[in-house]
Specification:
With about 180 residues, the chain is mainly alpha-helical. The chain has eight helices and two strands; from the N terminus they run αααββααααα. It has two domains: about 90 residues, Orthogonal Bundle (Arc Repressor Mutant, subunit A), CATH 1.10.10; about 70 residues.
Length: about 180
């Protein structure tokens, strides 16, 4: 299967915005921002300084169409994907190199630095990480209940399970 990868690609922020609107066409920029804010991932800040300008750029590039909406006296703007936006969205989804890139991982970025610590401090940090991971399971489940698709949450849970197992291995090795 040949995968078309557009040279005018979407950033991951733009791709995630477009994905949100593909699932919920006609929603407002505020809705998109709230989706990011309510994500269990701290990678997405959901700041108005990133979401709103990105949506504006997507409209300017012809990937989103702005739709005036009126609810009672209140006017707002909803957004939907254009035909070009749908194509760019699928290019983004199908891009194997970017989809499978190891990307930034805050866990992995800190892991090698544990070697700089005395053993007792390393154990303390690993136990704190374990507690945080265990608490993240509830956060993932709460977010899943409000989502229209659960595959991403299943992946997040599995990733946290792998991290937890890795921490347990590290703790067992420090006990030896």
């Amino acid at each position: 299967m040949v995968v078309k990868v557009s040279t005018d690609f979407l950033t991951d922020l733009e791709g995630t915005i477009v994905s949100t609107l593909a699932r919920r066409p006609g929603e407002t920029a505020y809705f998109v921002r709230q989706t990011f804010i309510n994500s269990p991932s701290s990678y997405w800040s959901g700041s108005s300084g990133s979401i709103y300008p990105a949506i504006h750029r997507l409209v300017e590039r012809g990937l989103l169409e702005a739709l005036p909406r009126k609810s009672g006296r209140k006017k707002s703007v909803g957004y939907q994907l254009t035909a070009t936006g749908k194509e760019a969205h699928m290019d983004w989804v199908k891009d194997p190199a970017r989809a499978c890139d190891t990307g930034f991982d805050p866990f992995r970025a800190r892991l090698a630095n544990l070697d700089f610590m005395p053993a007792n401090e390393k154990i303390s940090v690993l136990k704190a990480w374990r507690s945080e991971l265990e608490a993240s399971f509830a956060t993932i489940e709460i977010a899943r209940k409000g989502a229209s698709a659960s595959a991403g949450f299943d992946m997040a849970r599995r990733m946290q399970d792998v991290r937890l197992a890795f921490i347990e291995t590290c703790l067992n090795q420090t006990d030896e």
